[in-house]
Write a structure and sequence with these properties.
By secondary structure, this protein is an alpha+beta fold. The protein has helices at about 5-10, 60-75, and strands spanning about 20, 25-30, 40-45, 80-85, 100-105. The chain has a five-stranded antiparallel β-sheet, with helices on one face. The radius of gyration is 14 Å and the shape is globular. It binds adenosine monophosphate. Adenosine monophosphate binds near residues 32 and 95. Adenosine monophosphate binds near residues 29, 33, 41 and 95.
Length: about 110
């Protein structure tokens, strides 16, 4: 069996995380190396490696996660705006093979990203 990802270990409470939100389907915690004053990762509890691995019936889960992101942005005071990023696979800059949204805010974002 393949090794658990670091995010699966956080879900299973084997390692600590600074959790800001959790429900039956997903959880959100602060990034350990923040790239902005607010940097939260939102992950599904279901093990999905990348966007490429989404199944058609994950649509409701992903929709739910966007509502969680919207609510978190409000709660974290990001009314000026924010950025949501998903890196997909190595070529897209993904390091942890468990689907996650980066919610970044609290500073002006530049474009294009690196
Ligand atoms: P990505 O490059 O899109 O896979 O992003 C992975 C993110 O996970 C990076 O921003 C890391 O700083 C973050 N990260 C890695 N390990 C942990 C951890 N134990 N707790 C919180 N964030 C983490």
């Amino acid at each position: 069996m393949s090794e658990k990802t670091i995010f699966k270990r956080i879900i299973d409470q084997e390692i600590p995380a600074d959790v800001v939100y959790e429900d039956d389907l997903c959880m959100a915690f602060k990034d350990i190396v923040p790239k902005a004053p607010v940097h939260v990762l939102i992950i599904p509890k279901k093990e999905i490696a990348t966007v490429d691995d989404l199944a058609d019936d994950d649509a409701a889960l992903i929709g739910h996660m966007w509502i969680v992101i919207r609510n978190l942005a409000r709660e974290l005071g990001l009314e000026e705006g924010y950025r949501v990023i998903v890196n997909c696979k190595e070529g897209g800059g993904q390091e942890v093979p468990h689907l996650h949204y980066h919610l970044l805010g609290g500073r002006k974002m530049s474009w294009p990203p690196g």
